[in-house]
Amino acid sequence: MDEAFLARVNGDRLTSRQIDELIGISRGLIADGQINEAEVQFLQKWLAANLAISAEPLIHGLYERVAAILADSVVDEQEKTELLETLERFTAGNFELGEVLKSTSLPLCQPAPALSFAGQRYCFTGTFTFGQRRHCEAAVVERGAQVGGITQKTQVLVIGAYATESWKHSSFGNKILQAVEWRSSGLPISIVSEEHWRRHL
């Protein structure tokens, strides 16, 4: 048999085993509905150990996310909540880190508007490939924008690339639905994808 074929089959088998193990670990970590710093560190060690033998984008993406959380040696409540939600979606089987939600299922502005930053008010919701929400906010503040929660003064709502088809029922769905309602009533609020926003940075 072809050596490349055997390598691919063995690689697929290894990746499948890694994902099954990661699902089991994740379920154990979130079983009590919360996650603490020691659990985040444990997850990082497992991901680091499996990184070198995995071509799976999910493992690489999750490792980068966890490494960013631990970079400042402080795991704050927002970071715990975001990681908990990520692991919950992953273990529910309806989420793949690295898989971008089809834009057609989101109420994005069509056509997507040109974005500017100086004097604009931005709101970010969801989970981002760019980094944690605070990193996204810092990127626009550096360019002269303001950031905050969703209000009638918000001019741009950016939706993170990592999401599920059931976004309406997610923790960030209410922000999106509120923005859609205000946009429909005539308020000048743009709803854009993270991918579109990143092209303007």
UniProtKB/TrEMBL annotation:
Entries under InterPro entries matching the protein: BRCT_dom_sf (IPR036420)
CDD domains xref list: BRCT_DNA_ligase_like (cd17748)
Domain of life the protein comes from: Bacteria
Entry protein name: BRCT domain-containing protein
Lineage: Bacteria, Pseudomonadati, Pseudomonadota, Alphaproteobacteria, Hyphomicrobiales
